[in-house]
């Protein structure tokens, strides 16, 4: 089984890289991508935890934004971690998340809810990328809300009065940098309409033309109709079709390996990287 989209506690997952690797082995997964938000900090631990039977695909999920303000996530896989411009972009995105969090907290405080930046940072592992899930966990700990899932449903979704955007590159820029770093680019859950506004066909065309390699088709946030639309798009433009769990550990329904990528599709995707960067024990 091939799962190309997972998260550890180096972003908004709850498992350490070692725990995730062990769970993948126990689940029968043979190829696992670690794609923390705007971070590669979990790579070294995951590589150290590898055992025979599991191959690791180093990656990151890059937070992007279109010119009309729509959030897009691009999975960068198999890129060179020493590519300066890409690493600087990830660093800038992470740094801007702190300012964004302070603004969100201020809005929540204005509504009479007692939560502080210190409360949120307590939920953050060393080196992790700060995000709304850490705020959700702080709200749960303070007894404001019952669960992370409920926090997003009621307070932290993209259309919430508390929502604040943050700096992020355009998807076209992110793809350009991934490709320059020798990696491959896959757009994550592009039709997940319940998360908020989705990109238009014109924007999708611009993203494809920038060098996109694949589309995450099989994802729990896509309806059957959305999947069919993405399959047709992938066939029309000869894009790789992936399936992934988007696993985060506790607090999300996504189960490790619940959606996977066909080996032939993975072979096609991996061949587009400049050199082989899959790691084995």
From TrEMBL:
Gene3D superfamilies: 1.10.150.650, Metal-dependent hydrolases. Residues 2-66 form the Polymerase/histidinol phosphatase N-terminal domain. SUPFAM superfamilies: PHP domain-like. SMART domains: POLIIIAc. One of its GO terms (molecular function) is 5'-3' DNA exonuclease activity. PANTHER family: EXONUCLEASE (PTHR42924), POLYMERASE_HISTIDINOL PHOSPHATASE N-TERMINAL DOMAIN-CONTAINING PROTEIN (PTHR42924:SF3). This is Unannotated protein.
